[in-house]
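Box S2. Input/output pair 1.
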Amino acid sequence: MLIGAMLSPAGFVTEAYLVVTMRNHWTSYYKWLQEGRWSWLALSRQFVRLIMKVVKQDVIHLVIDDTLTLRASKKAPGSQIHHQHGNKPNLARYVRGQCWVSLAWVIKRRKQFVSLPVLTRLVPGMGNTGKLIAAQTLIRAIYRLLDGRKVRV
């Protein structure tokens, strides 16, 4: 229920429903989230448009990060053996997992920096697609919206 986390700070669709004036019964929205056909890319682009309206910055700061999600199954999409760079004593040097690449917008709020997640992509387990190509794909998905602005990645 990741979309619920995007809709309300507590991560519940019901709370988001209570905050915004809705026309339909809450079960309609739940069914739409659960079974409906909608685009994560369109939702992310709309989120970027919202950030640009609310946050006024001379320079847009985008951050790219990769995250390893541990998996036990070989059947999980993109699951493969990765070198565990964290040097955690309770993990083996090489672990099975999925590599995710994320793009976030960094803003300064009061005296601290806040990262707003925009898009995340699973790095495929097969082929020549690596983290850098995945990162380029994420940037390419939103770069037209940032036209005419200074951007630092």
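Box S3. Input/output pair 2.
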Amino acid sequence: MGRVGIILAALAATFGASVAQAQAGDLNPQSIDAAFAQDGAAIAERLGVTADAAAHQLRLQADSVAATDALADRYAERLAGIAVLHQPDFAIRILLTGNEPIADTTLVVDGEAVPVRFATGAAATRLALVQAISAHQAEIRASLLTPPGLGVDPRTGELVAVVARRDVEREGATALRDRLATLAGVPVRLRVIDQPELDMSGIAGGTRVTGSVPGDPHRYLCTAGFVVTDGQRTALSTAAHCPDTLSTRDADGQETVLPFVGQWGWGNQDVQVNASPLPLPPTFYTDAARTISRPVTAARARAGMRAGDVVCHRGERTGYSCSEVELTDFAPAGDLCGGACLPTWTTVAGPICKSGDSGSPVFLGTVAYGILKGGSYRADGSCAFWFYMSTDYLPTGWQLLTAPVQPVVPVVAAEHISDLAVNSP
């Protein structure tokens, strides 16, 4: 085998695909059905349902997004949050401000009736909660011993302050909560975490990548995320806090260098782009052993994220797992974004996260959601939650490389939404 063949083989082993393998037919990325089946099996126990039921719910989750986006627009002036419910059956819950009731209704998604349950009485809209974080973050940070994480919980309509135990012990939980609520002008709930949020330094996102920092003899591990393109080149995305120049190594020790293109790590971004010497396909690994690859067929916008949405990730240190979204608008603690972070990140309820998962792909089925940035840990070292950057914030000029698929239009009964517009206040 010539050097070009060796490089192709190395890339295939590392990235889960190569053009040569695809043409040869020995690479078969998962189908959409198989992807949902795998994700359903991974989340079933956590949701308390069978693997088949979980896979079915994930289909409903994906195909109900357009309908809940429309409902969010309909009730924008009162919207405090939208959440996905998995028990006793799949349903949507919409929390509104004010006390004027809205009658429950149903959406028909993929031929199935999905209950939509309205709750009222929230004290602040989601927009007001996000604006409170932006307006008062600096003042809140300055008033505490440890700068907190701040996020929006769409299930309760509260600003969640992820605070250090020493701040609670110094001030008292009730006094601290009430003071922050008065300062921000919105309801506040405290969540005590024993260790602060940390970037998950290391390299691998779908695949293992390593690099070093000038003057430091250590090699650092990260996870490569999704394949991106500027229209001329293909490249790998990962986290900006990973080393600049990265490389991969195959089982025979053949190293492939991934030249540094650029990094963006301020406010709402933590993303780096490293070029590939050869074209890459739009696939990513999903299993710990890097034997199962999936095509990327689309991206999920951050604006439509709902509490309770299930997402998955595949990190080099922790492998593959799935869990539910908790906070949809989150500003991580400390100065992880070249200073204070903006409330544009999304948190996920563990159950596992470790250093080395930085940059890893966050997804459901064949849809890309984002790139994992960091996590927060309990005193025993277990993962309290992890958080990711939406693919909305890929750097200007770069976009996801996607695989062509036959379009499938979700079966959502639009007349139900129209009826709401006519019959609801």
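Caption for Box S3: The domain at 126-193 is CATH 3.30.300 (GMP Synthetase; Chain A, domain 3). The two ends are 71 Å apart (CA to CA).
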